[in-house]
């Protein structure tokens, strides 16, 4: 059966639509797989950056608080009176204005803030503290390697004492027990022929 021109156009259009549908499904599948793989990784990376920034900000805040406490302690010990005002800081880190006259008088120096690790620069090292208590003795180490053999001594350098032994001969011992009977000897040679004797009647 011969196909008409209209049917041929419809068939070509169907082939084109199938191709477009296949390409669209393929691209959509790739996009979905990419989202499934990339979105969790991106979320994890952003969470890591957020945690790092919080860590850095907390460390800088504690360092700043430590500096203010040292400044307040130095002001109290030196007898200087006045108000200590802090400048405004970003949201989440602002503290109220502190009046040094309202702070409790303490002679103890401010405790250092724990070291959390940051890219901020550290100050100069302080003076060395007193020596600590001696620790327990460690376990014995393994034996060392054998050393190289030494040089042979000169025989003439050894001068030992010369001893002379002159011992007398000792007394003879007791008789021993009789031994067992020996084996019979070899049969001897025949003897000489004897003389003939005649007897007369």
Automatic annotation (TrEMBL):
The region called Disordered is annotated at: 84-163
Q: Which UniProt keywords apply?
A: Membrane, Repeat, Transmembrane, Transmembrane helix
Any single Pfam family the record assigns to this protein? Col_cuticle_N
Return the Low complexity bias intervals: 140-152
Report TM segments.
Answer: 20-43
One GO MF annotation is: structural constituent of cuticle
As recorded in UniProt, coiled-coil segments are none
The name of this protein is Nematode cuticle collagen N-terminal domain-containing protein
Q: Which organism is it from?
A: Pristionchus mayeri
Q: What does the organism's lineage look like at the top?
A: Eukaryota, Metazoa, Ecdysozoa, Nematoda, Chromadorea
């Amino acid at each position: 059966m011969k196909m008409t021109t209209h049917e041929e156009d419809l068939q070509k259009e169907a082939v084109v639509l199938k191709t477009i549908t296949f390409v669209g499904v393929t691209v959509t599948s790739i996009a979905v797989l990419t989202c499934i793989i990339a979105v969790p990784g991106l979320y994890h990376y952003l969470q890591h950056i957020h945690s790092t920034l919080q860590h850095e900000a907390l460390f800088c805040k504690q360092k700043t608080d430590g500096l203010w406490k040292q400044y307040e302690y130095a002001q109290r010990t030196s007898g200087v009176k006045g108000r200590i005002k802090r400048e405004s800081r970003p949201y989440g880190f602002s503290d109220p204005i502190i009046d040094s006259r309202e702070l409790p008088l303490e002679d103890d120096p401010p405790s250092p803030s724990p070291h959390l690790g940051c890219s901020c620069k550290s100050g100069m090292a302080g003076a060395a503290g007193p020596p600590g208590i001696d620790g327990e003795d460690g376990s014995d180490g393994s034996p060392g390697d054998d050393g190289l053999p030494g040089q042979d001594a000169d025989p003439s350098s050894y001068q030992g004492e010369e001893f002379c032994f002159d011992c007398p001969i000792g007394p003879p011992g007791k008789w021993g027990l009789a031994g067992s009977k020996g084996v019979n000897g070899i049969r001897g040679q025949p003897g000489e022929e004897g003389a003939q004797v005649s007897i007369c009647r």
